[in-house]
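pinging the channel bc i need a second pair of eyes. not urgent but kinda urgent?? the chain im working w is below, pasted from the shared doc
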Amino acid sequence: MTPRCRGTLTRVPPLNPGNQQPRDLSSADEAWRANAGRAAGTVLFFDFDGTLAPVGDDPTAVQPAPRVLTAIEALAPLVRRIAIVSARPVDFLRDRLGGLAGVDLYGLYGLEHSHSGGDTVTEPAALPWVPTMAELAELARAELPAGTLVEFKRLSVALHWRTAPQLGEAVREWGQAQADRLGLRVQGGRMVLELKPPVDRDKGMVIGEAIQDADAAWYFGDDVSDIKAFAALRARATAEPSFFGMCVAVANPETGQEVADAADLTIDSPAALGDFLTRAAQHLG
């Protein structure tokens, strides 16, 4: 059984994709104390679904967990930069964050971005795929069995079966067949399969670029796509030992163990993350 420390944090064995030695950090407070001297050079990255917000049956209705946005607002002036890196479109993130100032948004795995409330910029190589994605969404609605939720995101299509778990295999097979037919990329997740353009952009690439001039960075995520972000932090720490990187998993019953195995620390839930970040602001302030 994985040992638990006081509070909402669990210590787990890291995967260490960059061959970095595991950190001997037994509590949330110890982790933040280790980072405190570098606060002005620290970047905090957050996934949205399953991390800042609990996953729900209707992906269009989810909202951030209590205290999360207040805690991020308190942290923003204490660190160099805060960014949300999500599979959601930037417009969705902007709406759910309620006008939170000074936060960078990376949507659709980095195919879109907006810095500090600026305009949304789309990766040029992805734009020609918009019509293909629209047609794919319509085809999915026509061909997939009832109970499948088709989420059209302009530059990607997500196929959810959370309310009908028995459809998982059929949806995955259909999605893979369409990806092969159209030359798309497939991203699996928590009872969802996402089809994306064949453009070299993912969370790991976003993080790798964003931390080039940072002294420290934390990444908070819950799903398998976040493991690439963890790897980017570890690669930077391997190349530059003075860099302080922390990979934090948010527990879930579906992909949680795989993500936790790749992390330094695990938080119990999005709700617990709000408390964790509130304590972080006290340490860094």
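so Residues 248 and 265 are 5 Å apart (CA to CA). and The chain is about 35% helix and 20% strand. — does that match what u expected or am i reading it wrong
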